[in-house]
């Protein structure tokens, strides 16, 4: 406690999580670096989404704990946690005819509680969130009539309206086209740069992770294989180890962050032969 | 960072909250007393507006006063309370299940009440205990629904399937029990199962009003949590809704509301399903205003169904439950049709 470095706000300690009898994360430890963007990467089914859900207390640990400021997050009042940690899940439900502004306003729940009035501060937070995500122009339109990219920005706006110093996002760029992916990632980057928000996100794309994250957590089969800055973690050895894909990395010509280039993609895996193609 | 930003004193361009069409709510609030008064005027003897008013406030001769205050008023008050309870119950259950079909009359809550009621009729319990039996049945069906769906983070579809299953099983059991009832009690069971407000007196009205006095405020206390919960379980947890507790509370309150309504009037269908839909179309998605609107619309539907049932084929009176079924079936088909196209 007397260290110069303050204790990290969010960490997992001996965390085991499973669904029924299937253990997805066996006893893992993880420290989320404060004030940084952390990307969790790894192959499908490696437990990265499970880890994020456990960090967000959606899944209860079988043993061990997720600690927020040293307290087990599952034992804290849910609304207290929700003022510190926000979560954007992978799939959400849009009620028919709910407008953008109404949806974003619901993000203020942890600050208002079941009975609190709508205050000027709630108003300011909602406006701010809509402004930051660029959804102001369709504030009065029903969310279910928006395109996928617009809709994702609305969900991000709702979580931003929650005004939490820690933000967890489960594949926030999935289903988005290139422009919208960049938009969301840049928004998260600027939230971190300008407001010091700690961001943890599950990402599929290693290049996006390298480019936008400060810290990468690489997982395979429920274990953290490597973690650290992108330049140290995203290496040909590691990519082959966790994805089984031989590759080389080159510096991204724009940012210098590592860019993954797979080797011999056609000849190293299963592929259609000419005969099979003719038969098919 | 929240503290650093100067809070604006006056909110500019308010986030459009809750009330989409305040006018519609006003219309509903005015329509209810008009509907009640109209229901007091019509019946086997029709009264003029002045006669009905005089009878209501006590300046009329004996027979009018008896008809209005002794017969029609308790019946109308019961209808209003039953409809309001059904409408509110539907809002809670549909929001919790995230499914427009997730109302107590589809999810087995009403069926559970019916089963308990016919068993009670078969056991020849005093009629006064019938509401208690029905409410217990509604509670048990809801508890079963919770037990079947609470494991493994059941999503909306799974809960709806479980509910439809409970509904089917309970009604199969109702048929079985009714088939074995002695002739003398068959009539009582059939009258109850039709869902009627016939001969409802102040005892009935009081019973359902007590349930409403407990259930409706509880529903209003839960509605904001519901508005977050309906966006998805994970999102709701992230936003600080205690998932398990909130779900149990919503189910319990929905069961109390549907239970007292069914207990007093029998299974009046469609109201719990349709009133929330109509309310959402008028005032927008889940909120306190939607809840109030659904309660008022539910009350209007039951009052109207009762009056229509009494007058359309007079002197033969149809039970209100039959009228709502006739109105509700096409509405349900239209809903499914629209849903299928989405």
TrEMBL record, chain A:
UniProt-listed Pfam families: ABC_tran
Protein's membrane topology: Peripheral membrane protein
Protein name: Iron complex transport system ATP-binding protein
Annotated ranges, domain ABC transporter: 10-246
Highest taxon, organism lineage: Bacteria
Taxonomic source organism: Blastococcus tunisiensis
GO biological process: iron ion transport
Assigned keywords, A-Z: ATP-binding, Cell membrane, Ion transport, Iron, Iron transport, Membrane, Nucleotide-binding, Transport
From TrEMBL, chain B:
UniProt entry keywords in alphabetical sequence: Cell membrane, Membrane, Transmembrane, Transmembrane helix, Transport
A Pfam entry, by short name: FecCD
Transmembrane segments: 23-43, 76-97, 106-123, 129-148, 160-182, 202-223, 250-275, 287-309, 316-336
Highest taxon above the source species: Bacteria
Membrane association type: Multi-pass membrane protein
One BP annotation, GO: siderophore-iron import into cell
GO cellular component, one term: plasma membrane
SUPFAM superfamilies listed in its UniProt record: ABC transporter involved in vitamin B12 uptake, BtuC
Subcellular compartments: Cell membrane
GO MF annotation terms: transmembrane transporter activity
CDD domains on file: TM_ABC_iron-siderophores_like
PANTHER family registered for this protein in UniProt: FERRIC ENTEROBACTIN TRANSPORT SYSTEM PERMEASE PROTEIN, FERRIC ENTEROBACTIN TRANSPORT SYSTEM PERMEASE PROTEIN FEPG
Family assignment from sequence similarity: Belongs to the binding-protein-dependent transport system permease family. FecCD subfamily.
Protein name in the entry: Iron complex transport system permease protein
Organism of origin: Blastococcus tunisiensis
